[in-house]
Amino acid sequence: MKKVLVINANPKGQSFCKSIANNYALEAALAHEVKLLHISDMKFDISLDQGYDRASELEPDLLHFQKLVLWSEHIVIISPVWWGTLPAKFKGLIDRVFLPNFAFRYVESKAFPEKLLLGRSSELFITLDTPPFWYKYFKGNAIYKQLKTSILGFSGIKNRSTTYFGPVVGSRAETRQEWLGKVSKQAGKI
User: Fold this and answer.
1) Separation of alpha carbons 165 and 17, rounded Å
2) Which residues pair with 127 in a beta bridge?
3) Which of 5, 7, 31, 151 could be bridged to 72 by S-S, CB 3.0 to 4.6 A?
4) Model pTM?
């Protein structure tokens, strides 16, 4: 039994990402301990105005998120692609929470920081309003690179898989049901 954190990174209250997150959480809960987080329900300032120069006080929702990340063994992120990458609120969540001495630690005389979230795995579900092959091969797959390498990998979280759904806009109900079936299968493979 694993501790699984499912994050719906879509800031909209109702979305296909929410359906994916709910579906994954229900299926995974059959064999694992699962916590589900919808960032649309979170209240926090997304801006890290002082960068890392000065510590900012974390709002209660951000402190709760930190606890969930530390609790988790497997993190599932469901995110739409907005303007080629992450929605601003989700990026703000990462900026505000994945701080030095939480996600990584600078080490004197070392070129690379120490990864503080080692031992965790992740899984990504990405929704698009363009065909996935177009986004991945012609647009550069920025969201994947940002999440897998610059955020998760930098912190020590190893991404196991990435699944793309799209185009979502104009998709038929039958297609979305097929996609949700794929989500259920993935949740059963943790």
Assistant:
1) 10
2) 80, 165
3) 5
4) 0.96
DSSP letter for each residue of 178-189:
HHHHHHHHHHTT
Report the greatest alpha carbon distance in the chain. Answer: 56
Asked if residue 153 lies in contact with residue 104, where contact means CB atoms within 8 angstroms, the answer is no
pLDDT in tens, 137-177: 999 999 999 999 999 999 999 999 999 999 999 999 999 99
Distance CA 87, CA 75 (A): 18
Sheet holding 33-38, edge to edge: 33-38, 3-8, 74-80, 121-127, 158-165
- 13-26 tens-digit pLDDT: 999 999 999 999 99
**Strands 74-80, 121-127: pairing kind:** parallel
Domain of residue 85, CATH code: 3.40.50.360
Q: By residue range, what is the domain housing residue 164?
A: 3-187
What's the domain count of the chain? 1
Residues of the chain with pLDDT under 70: none
DSSP 5-66: EEEE---SSS-HHHHHHHHHHHHHTTTSEEEEEEGGG-------TTTTSS--PPPHHHHHHH
Tell me how far apart the alpha carbons of residues 61 and 92 are, in angstroms, rounded to a whole number. Answer: 13
Residue 85's pLDDT is 96
